[in-house]
Amino acid sequence: GQLVESGGGMVQPGGSLTLSCVASGFTFIQYDMSWVRRTPGKGPEYVASIESFGGHSTYYADVAKGRFIISRDNAESTLYLQMSALKPEDTALYYCVVGAFEADYLYRGRGTQVPVSS
Fold first, then answer.
1. In angstroms, rounded to a whole number, what is the distance separating the alpha carbons of residues 59 and 84?
2. DSSP notation for 1-30
3. Looking at the DSSP assignment, which residues form a beta bridge with residue 50?
4. pLDDT score, position 56
5. How does pLDDT run across 79-94, given as a tens digit for each residue?
6. What are phi and psi of 52, to 5 degrees?
7. How far apart are CA 111 and CA 60, in angstroms?
8. Which of 50, 52, 84, 106 might form a disulfide with 16, Cβ 3.0–4.6 angstroms?
9. pLDDT score for 99
């Protein structure tokens, strides 16, 4: 399986950004999916997860609640992360994984950088 993220880039504090993760090589609809971020000197931090199939159940880390929205388009095998009210501390490499929140994952993408700075 393969995951390819896009949508990252420099954004000012308070701004918004939507990340995408296109999946291939596995049956996307059957798997829970998650977004994870990593900053230099820190371990990976799960941001949000969405359940398989209809994605009716989502879960967010405290840092993401009220600001980030995870969603999926099974027809396009694509995972999204809508981010708003971004803060400098949100600066990180964001990547998607095949798996539930803080569980072992099956695949991970290389990620997309999100620098938040004025």
1. 17
2. -EEEEE----B-TT--EEEEEEEESS-GGG
3. 33, 58
4. 87
5. 999 999 999 999 999 9
6. -70, 175
7. 19
8. 84
9. 93
